Every structure is written in C-alpha cells, then in structure tokens.
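Contributing new complexes? Match this layout with NAI.
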Amino acid sequence: MSNEKRVAVITGGASGIGRETSLIFAKKGDRVIVADYNEAGGKETVALIEKNGGEAAFIQVDVSNYESVEALVEQTVLQYGRIDVMFNNAGIGLPTPVAALDWDAYHRVIDVNQHGVAYGIIAASKKMRELGIKGVIINTASVFGFLASAGSFAYHATKGAVIMMSKSAALELAQYDIRVVAVAPGVVDTPIIQGYKDLGMADEMAHKVMGGKLTQPEAVAKTVYLVSLEEAEAINGSVVMADQGYAS
Ligand code: NAI
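Output block (do not edit by hand):
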C-alpha cells in the first residue's frame, strides 16, 4: 500500500460497535467516514474523533436503500479520494416471532441487516475495483447467524445470510485482491440489547460469555481493526468470532 492514509467507511457509526470502531480506526491514523441515518449520533462520533486529533466526516445513509449506499461510496471518494475499508455494520434487532408475525418488522430487518450488507459489498467492491484498490470489506454477522433463539427468526436469517454472502463474495473478489470477512460478535453491551436488559435477561446472557461479563463494543471494534490490517491477508471468506466464547 502507498503511504497515503487509509480511508474507512463505517456504517452504524453513530452508536455501539460502529462508534467504537470509528474511534479506533481514527486513533490508528485512518480517515473515517462515519455513516448512519442517525445524524446527531454520527456527528457526535465525528466530534469525539476530532477531539482526539483524528480525521473524520459524517455522511448520512440509509443502508436499506441501494442508491443511498452508492451515494455514500461516491461521496467518500469525492471527499477523501479513495476507499480502503468498508465496514457494513448498521443493523437492527426487531423481534419477529413466527406465531405473531408483523410483516413490516420482518421486511425491515431483512432490508437493513441483509440487503444493507449486500448493497455495501456491491457498491464498495465496484469502487475499489474501479480505483484498483486492494481493499477489505468487513460485515457484522453474529453468533446468531448459526445459533438459534426463539422469537427473532428473521434476525437469524439475516445474520446467516451475512455469513454466506461474505464467503461467496470473498471467493469472487479474491482475483481483484479485495478481501471479504464476517465478524461475529456474541452479546455486546450496546443499545440494541436494551430490550433484553429491560426484561432482566442480560445477566443470564452474560453467563455464557467467558469471564461472565457482556462483551464491550470496544473489544469487537479492536477485532474489526485487526481484520482490516494487511497482516491479516490470510483471513478471507472467514467468520472471525468476537464473542468471548459465547458460541463455544
Ligand atoms: P446499535 O443500535 O448501538 O447501533 C446500530 C447502528 O445502526 C445505529 O447507530 C443505527 O442508527 C444504525 N442503523 C440502523 N439502521 C440503519 C439504516 N437503515 N441505515 C443506516 N444506519 C442504520 O447496535 P450495535 O450493537 O452496535 O449493532 C451493530 C451491529 O452489530 C448490528 O449489525 C447488530 O446486528 C450486530 N450485532 C450486535 C450484537 C449485540 O449484542 N449488540 C451481537 C451481534 C451482532
């Protein structure tokens, strides 16, 4: 790679895992595009980065809309001239019980978690190929991409899809030196699990985590950063666990 700074696009950068990942990439010297539909939260992430002397900009995106994701990639390249890392991380966790299915919730989860990742893979790889960049695309899967729980069958389907899309895209894009990797967190202490906390289920979930504490979003962020490095070149088409043993 040249001496030019890397440019990393991080969706879901307004909160949780995406925010912590944005902070780490910036701290390590990368330029970061914080992408989210939550403008206030995204700008807060940018302010935190700038306070620490890092470089970042916010771009609003709705990952469930292909034109919006394509515009995100275009604007990134207009602003910073390149795109080296695409972290497709934005996601939602709506319950979708089989017995009382709400079609809107079902479609929304698939649109954001599954189509959103597909759009990110397609738009970013297209641009990386156009610019001849040996990039890396990292997608947030979950242990729930291969472990089931009751009441959210669409969420499980989307995370399973993220794993298989990552593997297939990795096989296809290897010829262009573009890697695609899925990172699978376990249970991470972010706003997405507030519902479980409200029901008093978070402690129970933590029992399955080595050390007995919920995984902190910074820990997942560090895994994402490690996977993004050139030194991780052999990690391709893989599911990298960031679950502190949850699925063990
Ligand atoms: P979070 O709720 O803190 O962050 C999710 C972010 O995605 C929010 O900033 C939200 O505004 C953004 N977002 C949602 N829909 C969007 C859309 N259509 N367009 C643009 N941005 C959108 O949750 P967390 O935990 O940081 O989640 C990040 C990813 O990690 C998700 O894909 C989630 O499924 C996954 N994950 C989370 C786990 C956990 O226990 N917290 C475990 C395993 C995976």
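Reviewers usually confirm one structural detail per submission. For this one: Residues 11-12, 14-18, 36-38, 41, 61-64, 89-93, 112, 140, 142, 185, 187-188, 190-193 surround NAI (CB under 6 Å).
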